[in-house]
Amino acid sequence: MNLEQLKYPIGHFQKPEAITAKHITSWIATIAEFPQKITALTKNLDEDALSKTYRPDGWTIRQLVHHCADSHMNAFIRFKLALTEEAPKIKPYFEDKWAELPDTRSAAITSSLQLIEGLHARWTTLLQSLHSEDLIREYIHPEHGKRFSLSETIGMYAWHCEHHLAHVQIALKK
User: Fold this and answer.
1) In whole angstroms, what is the distance from residue 92 CA to residue 7 CA?
2) How many angstroms separate the CA atoms of 54 and 164, rounded?
3) Residue 37 parent element (H or E)
4) β-strand partners of 140
5) How sure is the predictor about 174, in pLDDT bands with cuts at 50, 70 and 90?
6) Which SS3 state, helix, strand or coil, does residue 89 take?
7) How far is residue 83's CA from residue 141's CA, in Å, rounded to a whole number?
């Protein structure tokens, strides 16, 4: 695999021209299933395995697990903001810098796996309760200079789940 394939093993997120109920249902299922999938891949890994990377200068499996917890916490909050405020401007964060913090570089992944499990249970409940008028609600991402609808964001985070599962699988084959 070349560097681009290692960075994006499932490709970049492709927003469908028209997001259908079928897309939303499938994406929510992917988000709901993520805790079991990431736990199954990582729960019995030793320190050497957790230190493996999916590409040169890439994050370790440990960092990937912690990153998913961090990223999905931010996503859940963005959803709640968009559902309770009118097109809120969200606060971006520097995921690359968060990945270098001591808790991400060295802490056991157990706490993040537990966090992902609980967070995704709540997030799935929220997502399954959304109506069509909720799905068109938006937030503003200042880093990208654009608005994101909740329907598009569900797709982006379903992709994010699969994207990082693929990274873990690549790292485990090394």
Assistant:
1) 21
2) 10
3) helix 21-42
4) 89, 147
5) confident
6) strand
7) 15
108-129 pLDDT tens trace: 999 999 999 999 999 999 999 9
Token pair, residue 164, equals 């990082």
> CA–CA separation, 167 vs 149, rounded Å?
27
In this predicted structure, the answer to whether residue 48 has a pLDDT above a threshold of 90 is yes
Contacts for 6 with CB less than 8 Å, ≥ 6 apart? 54, 55, 58, 170
How many of the other CB atoms lie within 10 Å of CB of 92?
Answer: 11
Instruction: Give CA–CA dist 107/82, Å, rounded.
Output: 32
DSSP 58: P
Nearest C-alpha neighbor of 83 from the set 111, 46, 48, 123: 123
| Cβ atoms within 10 Å of 43's Cβ, excluding its own | 10
Q: Across-strand partners of 94?
A: none
Give me the residue label for tokens 């797709």. 155
- Tokens standing for residue 5: 């394939």
139, β-bridge pairs: 148
The H or E element containing residue 146 is strand 146-149
What is residue 67's predicted lDDT score, i.e. its pLDDT?
98
Output the pTM of the full model: 0.97
Q: Tokens 């109506």 correspond to what residue?
A: 131
- Two structure tokens written together for 102: 């001591």
